[in-house]
Amino acid sequence: xxxxxxxxxxxxxxxxLQKGIECRNRELVLETGTCxxxxxxxxxxxxxxxxxVFINGKVVSRETVLRxxxxxxxxxxGTPGPYRVFLGFIKGKNIG
Length: 96
Prior knowledge:
Elements: E1 2-8, H1 10-18, E2 26-30, H2 36-42, E3 52-55, E4 58-60, E5 71-75, H3 81-86
Parallel strand pairs: 1-5
Antiparallel strand pairs: 1-2, 3-4, 3-5
């Protein structure tokens, strides 16, 4: 078993709170080998509802296996343009 700290942001936070699922600095105990996509499913979210997964402050693949004491955050689609590049959702393109 592992323990992680879970957060959801923006629309996901509202949605989870409406379902009675706490999602602000929540400690979760998970099975060893749980990946980010498993966590999304456990939170009763569809894959299309999560644009980015952060683990310990970095954007990662949904197939990343969570480790003990990771900080995990889910971000929904709709983050404004420039922030998508700064946060690492998409790679920047050279302009000009």
